[in-house]
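Protein modeling request. Please complete all fields; requests missing the sequence field cannot be processed.
Requester role: graduate student
Desired output: 3D structure, token encoding
Chains: 1
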Amino acid sequence: MSHRPPLIALALLLTLGLLVAPMSSPPVAASTDAAPVDLRVEDAPDPLGIDVAQPRLSWRLESQHPGVRQSAYQIQVAGSRSALLDGDADVWDPGTVESGASAHIAYVGPDLEPATRYHWRVRIRDAGGAWTEWSSPSWWETGLLDDADWQGAAWIGNPDSPQDPGVPEADHPAAPRFRYEFDSGGPVEQARLYLSGLGYSVAHINGERVGSAVLDPGQTDYSDTAFYVSHDVTALVAEGANAIGVELGRGFYGISTENAWNWNTAPWWSDPELRALLVITHPDGTTSTVASGEDWTTSLEGPTRYDEVFVGETYDARSEQPGWSTPGYDGAAHWDRAETTPGPGGELRARPHEPVRVAETITPVEITEPEPGVYVFDLGVQIAGWARLSVEGDAGTEVSLRYGERLGDDGLVSIPQYDDFHTVPRAQTDLYTLGDRAGPQTWEPSYTYKGFRFVEVRGLPSAPTTGTLQGRWTHNDFASIGHFDSGSELLNTIRGNTRRALLNNHQHIPTDTPVYEKAGWTGDAQLTATTASYEFDMSRFHRKYLDDILDSQLPSGELPTIVPTSGWSYEGAPGWPAVHGPTPEWDIALFTMALNLYEMEGDVRVLERYYDAMKLYFSWVDARVDEDGLYPYGLGDWVAPGGEPPEGPVLSATAHVHLMAGQLTEIAQILDRPDDEAFYRDRADQIGADFNRAFLDEEAGLYRTPGVDEYRQTSNILPLAFGLVPDEHVEAVVDNLVADIRDRGDRLNTGVIGTRYLLPVLSHHGRIDVAYAVATQTEEPSWGYWVELGNTSLQEHWQADTRSLNHHFFGSIGHWMYADLAGITPAEPGYATVRFKPHLPQDLDRAEAATETVRGQAASSWRRDGDGDLEQEVVVPPNATGEVHVPLLGQDADEVAAPPEAEFVEERAGYAVYTVGSGAWRFVVD
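Delivered output (926 residues):
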């Protein structure tokens, strides 16, 4: 027998705190050694500046013993830590609540005050009736809850910077700076800065940068929503004289260059604007405030001379203003008065999701000189972000940095097709002019990001070293919660490339490429939502993006294909006709992403929030059904091999509208809306009947679009995935799908829509060996082909000459690795029951995975030894039940060596099914 995989030992430590008793030992009763840990509010630990009226509280359990269950809980909330520790819950104490729930418990105490810290703790009662000790105290702090809380802080801008929206500009005013000097008003006990600087902002107090976030506060549909950020600046504010300085970048708020998505004519278009409130609390409890207004001063003479998200930045170090954010700045007399501005039209809300940060600094692996004095730095991996330049030379020397994902035949950076989307003075290029400071000068941009592996540098005063330029990798600062490893190094590499593609394309919204578009295509988001949820803590980000979708919905119910949008892709809007009107495979993001959150976290509120929007959309799209009961709209199976799919969009679109009806049926049942449930069930049945009448060839056992004789894999994958195939035809449809894959040499022939479901469909219909052969294929089209090409991310198209090397919508393979190869899925919402059902390819000897759930870590591992014996191990998080499916490998269930505590349920479809409690469990099949 093989030894225990390292994964399980690690999972035991992380999930249970300590190793449990030997798996063959008698069961241990639930004990009060269990403890609530990892307290969170709105899915964040100790969040600063939230504006949710009834925030949701969550915790997880930790224990040395298996079988831990929560039967009740008690929460206490107090106005101070000392009161809480004294048992004085002077804000809220609902008493004992009989419930096993430990995630998203709504606070329903007295109305929360703005800018106030609340302290809380929780204890739980176990299944045996014993209470745990109280958890360690945690806290949350409210932000500004309504406009009055801003205490007169106005939106301000620079009076000399306004332009006309929609008028293309090769240049525009420099990044405006704002400053204000103030007295602290006494000793400083606490200081909070509430700041919204649109599009992006960097703040300083007394010459020190505020926070570590970049590209803040994040992209939205500014006509509906704009974000502010709360900062703890206690350590930066001194007693006595102080100064605050804020510089603003344009971001997506005021793009000036022409582009395919009409950002330069967005309804919210504006030059940069700022709103800020600084609140200083003194030891006696009194406060002093500093609010943005016309008494602030502003300058356009700073060093950031130009910034455009699709272009780059121009920085002239000769224009630096030393001391501009410190008190007593000697250049203050030359600054102008700021003017009040209207501000964005949308509601100002606290930023709800993780900020973008610099996650890693990357040293180049190679420097080449393809032309005299022109140097190309190769980072070795595709990233999103920018470069940090360190250079020494004469003042006035200009250095240019051009970023790209590939090199041309001449060894220089190549950005093909960029001009198809943008009218810009230069593509992905920063310009830095040296100042007159002695010694090395170090600079990096602040308001733009690029997708790249290579940086072409011109104008260096001397030959570079690897210290001259480094890559700065940026993305939303998600917690990494996933682990996957297998006996296939190719699969492991594909998984790593998928993670990188996901991170590169999460920059406040789920983008489609950090080079060309930076657009939040809803299809891309929904295709990889589950993959991302296994790999990263996506809870806050996905909720934020669902709110973006809500903001984008028209009163008619229509949804655009990119979110946020300037108005692009609505019916009648200028732009690409293919995405005007319904695009069901993209629009379904509203449905699938909300349901994914519910299934992963058990949060009913997320369904309640978006249910009416789903109904509205469905009514809108259902009114566009044709006389045959079909929906001939949208993009269909996008970027399939060979170009535009011959079957068109009608089969794919109709299948997705059917799926929406089924999802609405499910949600209506969860929300106890029986009339809605009956209505949507009827619609699903009718759409399904119309679908089969139009596309099912019963005699041939396959689905096809009339007029298209070529077998199309996606046309058959979707009916299987969405439960549209009549039972008597399932086997034939699966057989024909497998035959086509085999005839193609174990190759797929799918675009992003079919690829999302291909491997799960094969696995769930007993064809895991075919799925594995496709997943590990190395000839075009395949993920392995990209690895053979040397890629470190995922491509936009299967073929080598694709436009983008940094897409994520083919990253749906990651879901298959976790859910099917390792077999981890939620059998009940929120992983109340964790299903472990691995599918074992004949050519793979091991696989393991783990992911953090709302209850703790769930882990799965299996391996076969040289004799064909199978060892399967799982870890069930505390307060959960495990449903373990042990592959029988042709044996009977009585051949399974199972722990005596595991309850045998039945033999089902080649598996022996067991029920287990929390803890670590090991099964062996000889």
